[in-house]
Structures are given as C-alpha cells and as structure tokens.
Fold these 4 entries.
Entry 1:
Amino acid sequence: MSYIKQSAEKAVSAMTPTRKVVDLQRDTVQGVQDKQALTTDHGVKVSDTDNWLKIIGSENDSELKKNGPSLLEDQIGREKIHRFDHERIPERVVHARGTGAHGYFRVTNNRASKYTSAPVLTDSSRTTPVFVRFSTVQGSRGSADTVRDVRGFAVKFYTEEGNWDIVGNDIPVFFIQDAIKFPDFVHAVKPEPHNDVPQGQSAHNNFWDFVGLQPESAHMVMWVMSDRGVPRSFRMMQGFGVNTFTLLNAAGERHFVKFHFIPELGVHSLLWDEALKINGQDPDFHRKDLSEAIESGAFPKWKFAIQTIPQSREHEFDFDILDATKFWPQESVPLEEIGELVLNRVVDEFFPETEQVAFCTSHVVPGIGFSDDPLLQGRNFSYFDTQISRLGLNWEELPINRPICPVFSHNRDGKSRHRIVKSEINYWPNRKNIGHPVSGEQGGYVEYAESLKGIKQRARGSKFQEHFNQAQLFFNSLAPYEKAHLVSAIGFELSHCDDPVVYESYIDVLNNIDFDLAKAVAVKVNGKVPTKPGRPNDGKRSKGLSQLDFLPKEPTIASRRIAILISDGFNAVEMQAVRTALTSVKAVCYLIGPRRNHIRPMAGQDFGPGVFADHHFDSQRSTLFDAIYIPSGEEHVKTLAKNGRVVHWVREAFGHCKAIAAVGEGVDFLRDVVRLPEVDLFAPSRGQGSDEVVTSYGVVTTGNYSISSAVTDVLNIV
Ligand code: HDE
C-alpha cells in the first residue's frame, strides 16, 4: 500500500489550508515530538505514570508489608483517573454514529445573485471553508456503518458573515411533517424500551407499527427501503437540505429554496447482502472509505444546486411546498447548479472535531432565511437546545464550532466559558455604544417582513393531508432491479416483525402506493394478499429519483477498490501492466495472496525486490472490494482453485455482479468457479441496467456498471 501513502503525502502537501483549518491550528498541539515529556494537566513533569503511590515495605524487613495500600494523596494518579472517568459526553440523541472532514465550498457561477444577497452563494472570488459530518440515524456511536438507514449530510459553512449550517440528509424527504412528532418517531425507530433491541436497524415491530399508523411517512419509507438506504460510500450519496428555506435578494424579494448536493462519482449503493456482511467484516467501512479517499488525493466532490420558487407561486403546486414529506419534482422546478463542495482534509483528532462539531438549522446568514415549514420551525428550536446538553452552553466557543469572523455579544458566563472579554460593558444599550446592533444595509440580519393572517389552532394545512402521490411517483420512477431490491428490503424488515398487526397494516399502506408492490411483499411475509388496489397507480414518473439518473457522464473507477488475487507462479509482468493501467485511472489496487509476504512470480520473471501481498486471503472479503482481477499463470491458478476462501471470494463477487477481470488461465479458473461456461464474461451488456440478473445472492444491481466497463476498457488498453 506504500504507493497510496506516497500519493497521500503529495495530496496533503499540495493543499492550501482553509481559513478554518488555520484557525483550528491556534488550539492544535503542534509538532508533538517523538520524545515529548509527559506532564500533568497543570504542567508538572511526571516521573512515573505506571504505579500508583503506595506503601511498600523493604525486602529486608519481614515486619513491613510487601504490597501495602494505595494512597489517596497521589495527585498524579487521581488526575489520570478523574480525567478518564469523565471522557464520555452524551452521544447525539440521533445521528450518533458519524464521521467528518474539512473542505471548501466555491461558487461556480453568479446565477444565485438574482435570488440572494448572501456572498457565500454569489461571490465566486471566495473559498468558504466547510466541515461536513456524515452519519447514520438509528444506531449508537459504536454501531456499524453499512446498516440500512438514512444518512445525515450536515455541512457547516464558515462564512465571513457567520456560520451557516445545512443539516441535511441523503434523502430529500422526511418521515414526519410536524416537529412535534419527532420524539414519537425517534422512540419508535430506536431500540425498543423493554430490551434495547435492535441496534442499527429499523427491522422491528415498533418502527413498522409507527410508520403503519403514520401514513405521512410512507414516502420516506420507500426511499429508505430502496438502495438509497445502503450507500456504497458517503462520497457517492446526494445531499439534501430537505426543509424549505428562503433566499432574500438585494431588492428584498423572497424565493423559497431547496438545497442539493450531487456527487461527482454518481450515486451508488451496496447490495443488501453486501451491507449485512460488511457490518461484521468491517463496521468502519464508510469512515475508512472517506479518509482513505481524501488521504490518497481522491477528494470527494459534489455539485451544489438550488431549486427556487418565487414567493408569489407558493400555492401553485398540488402539494404544499412547505411539507418536508414532499420533494419538488425537477420537471416543475428545475435545478440550477451554482457551486461545488470539496472535502480535502481529514481531521487531526476525532473527538474535538467530529464529535464536538455541532450543527443548528437556525444558523443562517443574511440573504438566507427560514420558511413556515413546520418541521423546520421545530428543528430551529431543537438543535441549539440539544447542543447545550451535549456540549454545554458555551459550545459555540469550541474550536471546531467557532466562526472565522469576529464574534461579539453581551452573552456571558455559563459552564466552561473560554472567551475573555476585556470590557466593563456587558449589556445594551450602553453609554459607549459597545456591541451595538447593525442595520440591514451594514450587514445586520433582518427578517423578511411578512404579512400573516390565520387562526391559532393545532392543525396542518389542507395539502398536508395527502401522503401517497409522491411515494407512488418514487416507486414508478425506479428501474425494475431497484423495485426488486425494494420489495426484498421491505420483505426483510417486515419478516423481523413478529406481530401480525404490524405487517398487515403496512401491507395496507403499500397497497395505497402500488398494488403489485403490496402483493409481492404480502406473499414474502405471509401477510394477507390484497385483492384490489388501495388506490389507482397513475403511472407518472419523475427524473432524478432512480440512481441510474446519476451515473457519471464517463464511466469511472477512480477511488474504487480492486482486489488482485495472486499466488506463487502468477504472471507478475502482466499484473504490473494491468495494475499500472488501473492506478493511472485512479483505481486503488490491493494484492491479495496466500500470505502477507513475498509472492513468487512465474518462472523467468525477475521482479527486483519481489511482489508483496497487501493482505492474505483470510484477512479480507470480496464484499470489501468493487472489482477483482485474476492474472494468468498456471501454477498460481491451480493454487487459487484449491483454496475454498478464494473460490468463495470469486463466486460471491460474481453473485454481487462485481466487475471481474481475468487473463489467460485466470479466465478458465473464472469460468470453472462461476460454473457458467457460456457466459460472455466481458460482454458490455452485463449490468447495463436494462436486464435484471438474478443470482444466488439476490437480484443484481447495475450500480457497478461504470466500473465493469471501465475495467474492460483498462484490459483493452493493456
Ligand atoms: Fe435532526 N437532530 N431533527 N433531522 N439531524 C439532530 O441534533 C431534530 C431532521 C439531522 O452530524 C440532533 O446535534 C428534530 C431532519 C442530521 O451532528 C437533534 C427534527 C433532518 C443530524 C435533532 C429533526 C435531520 C441531526 C441530535 C424534526 C434532515 C446530525 C444531535 C423536527 C434534513 C448532525 C444534534 C451532526 C441531529 C433534532 C429532523 C438531519 C436532537 C427535532 C428533517 C444530519 O437536535
């Protein structure tokens, strides 16, 4: 793997740190020396950190105890234990498991200036530092990465006008419409109260009971049960602000807005079978994937786009544009690309950065505002509040959270206050005009002046009552293989519900979306098979819902993991040529052999210092790679064929429709192993999306099409 490390060093040194990274360096212990001395937290050098202060007798005096009591007076021992006792802080009540990285945001054109006065979205001369945290929702901090769940996509923009947070998800809609339902929803999806089961899963009675009785969640359930619920990588997910925000331009005109991040690598998923296995094989799969990519210079990148609706058109749609269970179909509200987001730096230390980063939907900057979306209104209260219990009142002073622009207020005191303000004034108004409010013209935040009329009541608007149109639109827009995955996923989840009331009621919900879907699930889980549709399917479809709409323009294997299976007697010259071709298109190759050591090339190939395997066959699994390459070499192929682990590796990869490249004897081995002699292994039609291939591992995704054809291209080049 040394070549990855080399390119990582190059990539990291080529980066100019953003202003936020420079700001963090104020608090970073710089240049820890290899032989740095140990001190207490009050700075005194420590002479012994291995033995608590005790009474120990002398060996020569039999009257004295050989190992006496430990003394409370040991201030060094006490400090060590005190610090340790309080290391944990409350984990996030949702989204506890996550990982983050630094990067920047840049405006790529000035289209947004007609909608907003916010320079972060309009000034193309700026590079705005960002910190992004990706997360799962249900599981606790130690849960696995590849569970079926929504992924959080939270972005903190450190703008010169203050911090702006988009606290989004990888799915454009949400389970509920009104914030007051959030505690119920979260209680229902989290481990059940009587036994604290299950972890990192929604496959249990309480979740399905709740969503069955709360049909507004039907749309979001469809997304989570689709392949979107098991992303291949955080780098291959879309990000959505979900809630409707507003933009205010210099002329004081207001537009409603939705925020979108679109990944450069396309939107790709794991298969459910892979995801389940990776949960055990490498629970840190996603967080490692992110840091490996950044460290190797394959910086994850997203286009940033907005959808806008002028204030005057708010009521022109057949859904309420303030309802977070609905997206805005691109056919009626096109996307406008205005910028790009790039992640280019891993954190130096997880806790002070990724764990202590704290987002608030209420943190907006002038030119960006809220809407009356009832979910957003509740969120605007909740996030600040939760940070107080998680991090303390002064959480915004923590290095990762503090803005890069000046901060001055009359807010004072509270636990763990860091900032020292040298002034006798801490109130407004004051005789010295210190901490004075600033007008809108001078950059102060001014709310949009809106005229409102209504009756105070506990209710929702009339268009909030419709729950199935977009769930159906989403289902109709999926490719056949995506629909098949969705049926399997719901089938899996409902099979884990042992209360028939729960799965029967959900079959009714599904029947309001699509008759065939409801029947297919009912048959799988042994529920009552509906005899007529709950409501008709209008057959409408929309763009941007199927993952196939997000294949990169050119097939790419950049940053994909390729396993090269070798054993003694393999063709090292050929392997080297293929590996060079693969790495030149930025794939990441790993040599997997019978031992993590020298592997002997075929006779006559002099290979300098030799070829060393990065891993041995038992230490990795096919699920952790995107593709396989089997070089030629008679002796090596015979060894592979005798190794059950390798045979399983290849069959499993084939079953998951991974791209498999083989040369010479490698091809014969491949044909034998997959027992499909007639299959044209490199036919480009395989996995193109039109054909549904069923293997022993389930219905195959076409998500890897781009890799399949790119590997074929590489072999052609070689
Ligand atoms: Fe959150 N959510 N949420 N949420 N949420 C939290 O804040 C909440 C919602 C989202 O990486 C909490 O700092 C309410 C929608 C992300 O640190 C908490 C409601 C969306 C993260 C909270 C919602 C999200 C959170 C827990 C309904 C997608 C992780 C810890 C009204 C747009 C941020 C914390 C990170 C975290 C409350 C609904 C996304 C308790 C009350 C909709 C990505 O404040």
Entry 2:
Amino acid sequence: MKPTVIIIGRPNVGKSTLFNRLVGKKLALVDDQPGVTRDRRIGDASIAGLEFTVVDTAGWEDEDPDTLPGRMRAQTEVSLEGADAAMFVVDARSGLTPLDEEIGRWLRGQSVPVVLVVNKAEGAAGESGVLESYSLGLGEPIPISAEHGEGVADLFQGLWPVIGEKAEGADAAATEQDADEDDEEGPLGPLKLAIVGRPNAGKSTLINRLLGENRLLTGPEAGITRDSIAIDWQWTAPGGETREIRLIDTAGMRKKAKVQDKLERLSVADARRAVDFAEVVVLLLDATKGLEHQDLKIADMVLQEGRALMVAINKWDVAENASSLFNGIRGALDEGLSQVRGLPLLAVSAKTGKGLDTLLKAAFEIRESWSKRVPTAALNRWFDDALDANPPPAPGGRRIKLRYITQAGTRPPRFVVFGTRLDDLPKSYERYLVNGIRAKLGFDAVPVRVVLKSPK
Ligand code: GDP
Ligand code: GDP
C-alpha cells in the first residue's frame, strides 16, 4: 500500500492548485472564490520518484466562515485517520489568519506527521509570510508556488522522512527485483550535521571552534525548529579541499536555562529535533565524565531514527587514563547499542582543536555508507553465499525458503528479503543476515533495516 498524504488548509490558500500540480493533471476547477464546492478528490502523486496517494480536502469547507472551523475539522478528522502525513498549506501572501493558527494548533495535537507548506511564495511578496509561518510551531516551512510549480520538488525533503519508508516498501513489494534501475541517488548535498550531548559536554565550544576556523557561507539561519539554528559553512580539509556543511545547532539556544535537571531532559529533546534534520549526528561526551546512561539513551534514539551516528569524546586535553577511558567507552557502546557494531569513536578537544578534522572526515565517510546502494547482483551474490554457509532452519522438517534480497532504500540502508514461511524464521537467523549485510557489504556502523516479505 502506498502512503497517503492529505492536504489541509483554510479555503483559498491553494490546496487544489497544489493537488493538481502533484497529480499532474488539470482535474478540478480552481476558483478564486473561497469555498467553491468540490468533490473530495484523490489522486496518484509523485515527487522525484516518491509515490503516494494525495487527498484534497478543498470543498469540504462551508461558505460561512463562522461555522468553518468546526465543519472543516469534522471532515478533516475523518480523512486524517487513514493518512500517513498531512500537508498543511498556508498562504504566504495573505499572512497567517486566526483560522490558520487554529488549524495549526489542532494539528499539533494530532499524531499524524505534519509538513508545513507555505504556498504563493513566489517572488519577494511571499518572504515575510514564510518567516511568519515558523510561529505555527510545526517545524520548517517549505515555501512553494503551486501555481508556478516552484519548490514543489522541495516537498520531497519534507515528505520523505515521514512517508519514505512506507513508499519504498510499497515500491519494493510491487516491483520486486528491479533495484538496479534506481541506482542513481543523485549527488549528496552539504553534509547535514548535528552535535548533540549532555549539558557541558562542550557542544557550543566545539561549534564555535569549527566555525571560527572555517568560512561561513551564510549567516546563521534562525528557526529550523523553534529551538535551533542552521549554519552553512565550508570546511577546509587538511588537503586543502573544501566541503560544505550545514550544521544544526540546538545547543547554543539552551544557555539560558538554569536548572541542570531540566537541561538533562532538554538535551534529549534537542537531540530528537536535531535528528529530524541531520544526516549524521555526533554525540559528544565529556572525557571527565565518561559515558552515562543519558548518553546511551540519546545514541539509541538517533539510531532508531535511522541516522548515522558517531561518538566523540571531548576534553581529551584533560582526560585521565586516556586509553582505559577510551576502551571502556568502546566496550560500553558495543554492549549498549546492539543495532550497530563499531560506531566511529574519536577523541577530540574542542578547546585545542585536536581531532576535529578527523571527526569531520569520518562524518563524510559515514554518510557515504549510510547513503550507499549495493547493486542487486552483488547483493544477491552475497545472499546466496550467506545461505550456503548457513542454511535457514527447517522447523517441522520443512525448510524455510529465502529467495532473494533487494535494497529498498538508502539513508538509512533498507533491505527487503523475500521468501516463504517467514513467520517461522528465528530471530537469530534474521540477526545473522543483518550482521552479514553490515560486515560484508560495507554498512558497518550505520543502522540497517531489514524487512522480510512473502510475495503474494
Ligand atoms: P483552495 O481553496 O485552497 O483549494 O485554493 P485554490 O487552489 O482554489 O487556489 C485559490 C487561489 O489561489 C486561486 O486563485 C489560485 O490561482 C491562487 N493560487 C494558487 N496557488 C498559487 C500560487 O502559488 N501563487 C499565487 N500567486 N496564487 C496561487
Ligand atoms: P555545552 O553545554 O555542551 O554547549 O558545553 P560548553 O561548550 O558550554 O562547554 C562546557 C564547559 O566545558 C566550558 O567551560 C568549556 O570551556 C569546557 N570545554 C569545552 N570543550 C573543552 C575541551 O575540549 N577541553 C576542556 N578542557 N574544556 C572544554
């Protein structure tokens, strides 16, 4: 089943125009007059290969603005039930209205992920509307012009994290063995990097150090979420090569909070927000404190969200018993995080700058494997060997048949194994396969997802 995305918004913001744009046909009339009654429309949408079912709620609106919120809510609630995500559309030109705010508040209370879309953002007239929309507290708005087709591709960035997995699963199931065809993932853009960790680990010091030594491409950009900033800069690697990095900083914003206990909890919340935007997350530890439970909790969350994780031990300049500290943390990570083996672990000093180039180099490298696609032929060669070396068990005398494997996606790498009688496959065998994918196919330290499927 393809994922379903519902378009929500008050009348006249351009929902129908967006729907038509996504479906690629002039299906319905678009009218200047708010509230023109239309039928509920459902269509097949595709953005950069991401396929989903899109539902337009335009036309569920009442003419009478007084009764509008309630009625719209009732109608929207029904369709929200089956939806995997909602695109909440606001109008950059008119600015936010009380009704937008009400819908936004209501959506914040729903469990469905919301992608905030600011339509009519073409030209300078839309700029302030885009900035204003941050105040809805629904994350980073995606400016588009449905009418002119601008920015629609950027919706991919917003939708992929929430429906990508389901879409790719549907795709893999439907098309079976054709993974070779979409080997081209496109070039990787600036490295999206977040630095997380407990208070006083040295996050701010690290960020200042990195930025101080390198060229800022733009000034910090406020409000990727309400509590973070994004900074685009250029890292000059030791060889002289330059690489672009977009740093997500949730740390600096926390300086004002006083109570340590509150800070501890906030650091988890910060990390959670940061992973939404980051490809690679650096968990910063304090060498004078070692690895604590809270750190493992953050690490585990990052991996569960499917992000590439690295761990850096900061304040190495004042570390005592350095090698036993390092080995102790290594062991605790391997033991505490069963999803990955051999996470990159580095010693750094934000104060002296030691280890920072190595850290960034490793961050680019881990993004490579996080983004890598293994050709289907090579994948199945490995798969056949793995089955030969250790055939699946035969509970009750009937062998479980594993037929082939395909890589359904990247970032993080996702695989689908097709076979029969999969319900009987022991967890230990599944782990055997996952470990093989990691060790033999070059996904050592990144979270890998494997799904088992029986063809219909
Ligand atoms: P709905 O009621 O939310 O479905 O809105 P419609 O799709 O009917 O659009 C309402 C009005 O906004 C129409 O006049 C559209 O032509 C106009 N509109 C839609 N998208 C854009 C856009 O990107 N830029 C501008 N300037 N106008 C738009
Ligand atoms: P944050 O709360 O994670 O942003 O931590 P800060 O960047 O504010 O740093 C907390 C304290 O650790 C400050 O007093 C820093 O000067 C100190 N600090 C940060 N990095 C280092 C380091 O590499 N070595 C040493 N010795 N101190 C550091």
Entry 3:
Amino acid sequence: MLPVVALVGRPNVGKSTLFNFLTRTRDALVADMPGLTRDRNYGYGKVGSIPYVVVDTGGLVVDARGVEQQMVKQALRAVEEADRVLFLVDSRAGVTPDDHYIAQTLRKLNKKVFLLANKAEGVDSATAGADFYGLGLGEPQAISAQHGDGVRSLMDEVFEGI
Ligand code: GDP
Ligand code: MG
C-alpha cells in the first residue's frame, strides 16, 4: 500500500495547485471560483524513491449547505483514509473562521497534520506564517504551490520515517 497524503483547507487556498505540482499534471481544476473540485481527485507523486498517492479535495467549510455538504463529506473521507494531512491556509488572506473550524476538526483526529501557509512566494516565511500559530497545529510552513517554493523540503519531512 502506498502512503496517502490528503490536501485539505477551505476553498481557494491552493490545494489543486499543489496537487498539480506534486503530480505534475494539470488534472485538478484550478480556478478563482471556489469549490470547483467537489469530490476527491487522486494522483501519484514521488519523493526521492518513495511513491505516494495524493488526494485533492474540494475543501472544508463551516455550515456547509447544498452541494457543499457532499464536498465536505468527501474531504473528511479523504482525511480518514490518509496517512498524512496537508492543511493549506492562504498566507495573503490571513486566518478565517473556516480555517479555525478545519483546525478544530483536524486536532480531534489522530493524524499527522502539516500546516502550510501557501501563496508565500516573495514573502519571508516567518511573516507568511505568523498569523497561523493560533490554529494550534504547530509551526506553519510557508510554501508557494504555484512556484514550488518550499515544497520539496516539506515533502521530505512529510515522508520522514515512512
Ligand atoms: P483550491 O480551491 O484550494 O483548490 O485552490 P486552487 O488551487 O484552485 O487555487 C485558487 C487560486 O489561488 C488560483 O487562482 C490559483 O492560481 C491561486 N494560487 C494557488 N497557489 C498559489 C500560490 O502559491 N501563489 C499564488 N500567488 N497564488 C496561488
Ligand atoms: Mg481545488
């Protein structure tokens, strides 16, 4: 069984962009319209010689309504089946109520979670992450899914000991 990495976070934080970077495809829909990926999307990535499965999700939101309910259900399922969880937040937008809700949800689960302050290209990583300590998931790591900044060292860490 390959290790499974789930990408979670509220819509529009860059999950699908990271999925595309990790799998080197354009398979995941990337758009400014939040919530475009409504179910789970699977791909393969590789770190050094370790292949893994990466799962993109539509996102988690508080008080999901209508089609969002299905999106949230799928995202939670992806988290359940994952060995590692990458929780993305938007370093440019700062902390939102959805981020708090997701953090609270993830903290209850016995999963290894990595908190990623995305869209941090051109910003020093301490500044990019500063807002997110309060989520209670440890030190945020600054990345740019779009440019790949910080992603390689992140994935090395994610798979340490696997
Ligand atoms: P998702 O809803 O979480 O899957 O987010 P997407 O991957 O669809 O990205 C949402 C928007 O953020 C798109 O316009 C992306 O181009 C943009 N985006 C994603 N990652 C980055 C990044 O690292 N830097 C910047 N500047 N924009 C990004
Ligand atoms: Mg997406």
Entry 4:
Amino acid sequence: KLILVTGVNGFIAAHAVIALLDGGYQVRGTVRSEKSAEIVRKTYSAYADKFSVAVVPDMSVKNAFDEAVKDIHGALHIASPFMLNIKDNESEVLIPAIEGTKNLLASVAAHAPQAKRVVITSSFAAMADFSKGFWPGHTYNEADWNEVTYDYAKTADAVVCYCASKALAEKAAWKFINEQKPHFDLTVLNPPMVFGPAAHVVSLSAMNTSAWDIHRFLSGELEDVPDTGFWGFVDVRDLAVAHVRALEVPEAGNERFFIVSGRYSYQKTADVLRASPLIAEADKKLVPVGKPGQNYPGADIYEVDNSKSKKILGLKYRSFEESIVDAALNMIDVRNKA
Ligand code: NDP
C-alpha cells in the first residue's frame, strides 16, 4: 500500500518513514525543493523500489497536492513550519500550516478515491490553554483545546504563533471532515516536545526546534538551566509507531490522541545528562548544573494523560532517560563528525 508522507525530510517524518517501510508499506514523500529531494533519495536508497519523492514547492497554494496524492491509500501530513525565528507570522507560519492542511485534505478528497485515512501530526500546542499557566490540578487529555484566535496569533510572539498555527490547522481539518464528509476518515496525533535520536540528515546549523532545545545543554551555550516552558515529552521512535498505528487501527478513525510519555523539566534534563554513564566527562562539563534535583514537575504543574493512546493505539512509551540520552549521544556524534 502506498502512503504519502508530507515534509518527508524532517525529524519526525524520518522515523515515521522507517516505521512504514519496515511495516511493508510503500512511501511517497513530499519535500519543497529538488535539493531536499536529492538528500532524501540518498537517505532511503536502500529502499529505492519502495520510496519515491514528489516536490511540492508551496503547500499553501490550492491544488498543491493534486499530483502527489494520486494512487495513495493513506497519508501522514507531517509538514508544518516549526521555527521560532520568524519575521512574518502569517506568511511564514499561519498560512502554510492552515492552508497546507486544508489543501492536503482537499486533494485526497478529489484525487485519491482509494485512500482510507489521513493522519495529521498536530501538537500539544493545539491542546494547551496558556491562559491557565501551568494549571496545577489539571490533567491534559484529548478534550483540551488551545482556543487562540487567528487575529491574536497574527501579531503574537513566535511561540504563541506556532502554537496557534497547530490549533487552527487542526480545527480546519476537523471542520473539513465534518462539513465535506469525504470518503476517508481522519486521525490526529498531538505530541508535546519530541526528543530522541535523529534518523534524517542533520547538521548543527539546521537542527529541528526540539532537537535544538536539547542540543543547547551540550553546546556550552547555557550558563544556567532555563525555566521549563512545556512539561510533556515523547520519544520520536514511539511517535513513529503511533503514526503507523494511527493509519491501521480501525477504532482510531476520527479520533484525536495525546501522544505523551510523561512529564520532564529542563533541570531533569541537565541531571539525567550529567548522571549518564554513556556520556563522556568532557561533554558532561558543558551541561549547566542549575539546582540538581529541584524544579521537577510536581503538584504545581499540570499532569498528562496518555491512557487513550495506550488503550486504542496499543502504545508503549520510552522513559525520559532513554529518550534524552539517545538524543544527546546522537548530537554529540553529529558534532564530532562535523
Ligand atoms: P522539522 O523541522 O524537522 O520538519 C518540519 C517539516 O515541515 C520539514 O519537512 C519542513 O520542510 C516542512 N515545512 C516547514 N515549513 C513548511 C512550509 N512552509 N511548507 C511546507 N513544508 C514546510 O520538524 P519536526 O519533525 O519536529 O516537526 C514535524 C511536525 O511535527 C510538524 O508538524 C510539527 O508542528 C509537529 N510537532 C513537532 C514537535 C517537536 O517537538 N519536534 C512537537 C509537536 C508537534 P523544509 O525542510 O523544506 O523546511
């Protein structure tokens, strides 16, 4: 069966592609440029008969995916702008996220009659109610929504704008399904911070945002442990499994899943890295010390509920220690080879 994966050159998509190929699927991945196409063709050269690439230069243009969706049986829509150095909220983030999602769904509806399901990689960003702060006593689950408006997001800071782009894109997707009633159904995955090793071609200068978040702890650039902004995490390898299960499990149709292993903090990140026997002493010296053992998520921070994903998708989650140490070892390797 042929599955379309948008943004196939990214961090999460790379793991999803491996899980799909290992699961016997064929994959057609979209990228924005011929240069990215060349890189991913090389990455998956061992699977040349099962992996192909389609260049979609601008997903916010109507009918952008019309060619790319031909003959697919399902799609993972993973592409979305996730960067924090932006100049124009609308053109760089909000429009591609929202219109890209609508255009993908419209193309599948019009040109992929055999497609059964579209899976969208949304985010905890689409669930979090920032007006509540760290919301002590609350347990986040699939019923929660970030209710930010487009008008507010237009001039908000980069983090709020990114979170809004995910919420508004996901809302647009559910609206499309409810109003158009297409021949396929929708499954949405909402991961928080995604850690773990990279499977795609990475460079220190162009690292995806969540990897950069951890890389700071190993680069020597942090003088102290920063304040934690988001307290949930998941390993990218578990999220990849979630994408495949989301395509396959019948009961996952028209459902939303909070894909979260548990809670963490930046202080815990620093403590785990410095305690790991797998990380060299020279690298540990670069990790800020902060206040070891303090500022862990406690009763003053929201809880996270992953029971639906365990029950319906059958997920098992890696520990924070495994995720963060594997991410660190991968980054140290990239740095040492640079
Ligand atoms: P990456 O930056 O590694 O991947 C993002 C992908 O989206 C790339 O293929 C990128 O293409 C593509 N993309 C970005 N902007 C556009 C655009 N304007 N038009 C078309 N394609 C675009 O990030 P991740 O793998 O971490 O993120 C993948 C998805 O997961 C995103 O939807 C993100 O919102 C979501 N997510 C990520 C989390 C995390 O912690 N990493 C947490 C929760 C959700 P190009 O290389 O050409 O820029």
